[in-house]
Amino acid sequence: MNLENQLNNILNEVIQWRHQIHSRPELAFEEYETSKFIQQKLQEWEIPYDFPLAGTGIVAKLEVNNPKRRLAFRTEMDALPIQEMSQKPYRSIYEGKMHACGHDGHLAALLGSVKIINELYKNNLLKNSIYFIFQPAEENEGGAKRMIEEGFTTRYNFDAIYAIHNWPELPQGIFGLKSGPIMASYDRFLIRFFFERCTCCNASSRNGYNLCCFFVYPKCIFLCFEDESSPRKGDFFYINPCWNNL
Ligand SMILES: [Zn+2]
Question: How many CA atoms lie within 13 A of 145 on its CB side?
Fold first, then answer.
């Protein structure tokens, strides 16, 4: 069985899946159509799977007797609340939703892997049990967290889970690897500012807004008030930090 031939044989099909998924983007925890599309493929290939995990998630299973290891490959399914401006024939058909993070590509690639590894499985060439994880809500909405809360880690007890994320800055054909944590989630924070006295500095007046200076060693964060009213003693403000003059 020649893997390179296998890959070339399904390449056009994988591209077609990518375009199909791209045209029908769904936001976090709403990946119903996407999940259905994946399940139809798994049923077509007669691959057993668990569903649902965290609402729309799926784990497909190619299990062998006495596996040396239990390995998993994982992709995400969700898109972003972004309006697609492209005129490509496979552009998003949904207003204000777009696969702008590349999860359509990850999904199509993983489905391609499922199809090829299933051929190895059917020919008794697998020594490890292989699982394919389709995770909802990667875009900072906590899909993985919800799967774990539902018992994902104890239920499967994988020896390793592999995942990729596209990185358009890298040239085609180059993989980026790094030891230690990578692609960590960002976090949101809210600063609640309780006012005693406005201590405006001269350099920080912009568009008539009152700007206050808040020193956090070693950098200075200028905090911009949301409205133009002058702060009074005792006022609460929800403030957007903007990094200025750093
Ligand atoms: Zn992403």
Answer: 9
CA 72 to chain centroid: 17
Output the pLDDT for position 200.
46
Find the 193 Cα to ligand 1 centroid distance in Å.
Answer: 33
- Ligand 1 centroid – CA 48 distance (Å): 27
Domains in the chain (CATH in brackets) are 3-163 (3.40.630.10), 191-242 (no CATH)
CA of 142 to the centre of ligand 1 (A): 13
Q: How far is the CA of 166 from the centre of ligand 1 (A)?
A: 8
Q: Compute, in angstroms, the gap from residue 86 CA to the centroid of ligand 1.
A: 19
- Taking the centre of ligand 1 as the mean of its atom positions, its distance from the CA of residue 59, in whole angstroms, is 19
pLDDT for position 50: 97
Claim: this prediction has a pTM higher than 0.70: yes
Contact between 198 and 210 (Cβ < 8 Å): yes
Q: How far apart are CA 120 and CA 114, in angstroms?
A: 10
* Helix, strand, coil percentages for the chain (3-state, nearest 5): 30, 25, 50
Running along the chain, 246 residues long, what does each successive block of 10 average in pLDDT? 89 97 97 98 98 97 96 96 95 96 96 96 96 93 92 92 90 88 71 52 40 40 44 46 37
Q: What spacing in Å lies between the alpha carbon of 171 and ligand 1's midpoint? A: 18
Cβ-proximal residues to 243 (8 Å cutoff; 6+ apart), any chain: 219, 221, 222
72 Cα: distance to centroid of ligand 1 (angstroms): 18
